[in-house]
Design a protein that fits this description.
Blueprint (H helix, E strand, L loop, with lengths): L1 H14 L10 E7 L5 E6 L20 E3 L4 E6 L3 H6 L6 E7 H6 L2 H6 L5 E5 L1 H6 L3 E4 L1
Parallel strand pairs: 1-7
Antiparallel strand pairs: 1-4, 2-3, 2-5, 5-6
Length: 137
């Protein structure tokens, strides 16, 4: 019976969006409503730069891609309110970069010429008002 219970948990866990035994995930959803694929840089506590420094990181980061009409997700085990409190100015910068530029140009050029499509600087109040759903453009 124990083996059967364990096997059921493992099988159900594989079908779940969230890992098993995790109480809660806090999610920011970024939806691409443009006509081109984009990459998203979320300047959170793990980013090399954070607001008020809005420069792009010196090294090319691995960025999530959002296809046309699709969304991507940024999950956290702690609330985004707590996340933003860890940042220098309680503000989360979100950079949008054209996927073609990201894939085909040198990161140094992207960084130096600040080849971003848009940047949003969001407070926790902004995120709450958006219901943690960010739309591009």
């Amino acid at each position: 019976m124990i083996i059967l219970t364990f096997a059921t948990i493992v099988l159900c866990a594989n079908a779940c969006e969230k890992p098993p035994f995790v109480d809660k995930f806090y999610r920011i959803i970024v939806t691409n409503n443009s006509s081109a694929e984009i990459r998203i840089l979320l300047a959170d506590e793990y980013s090399a730069t954070q607001y008020p420094d809005t420069t792009l990181p010196a090294s090319k980061p691995a960025l999530q891609k959002a296809s046309v009409g699709k969304s991507c997700y940024f999950d956290s085990k702690i609330s985004w309110e707590e996340n933003l409190k860890k940042l220098p100015a309680d503000t989360l910068s979100v950079h949008f970069i054209d996927n073609t530029v990201y894939e085909n140009e040198q990161w140094d050029s992207i960084r130096v010429h600040y080849k971003i499509l848009k940047r949003l600087d969001l407070s926790i109040e902004d995120l709450k008002a958006m219901n943690y759903n960010i739309s591009y453009p």
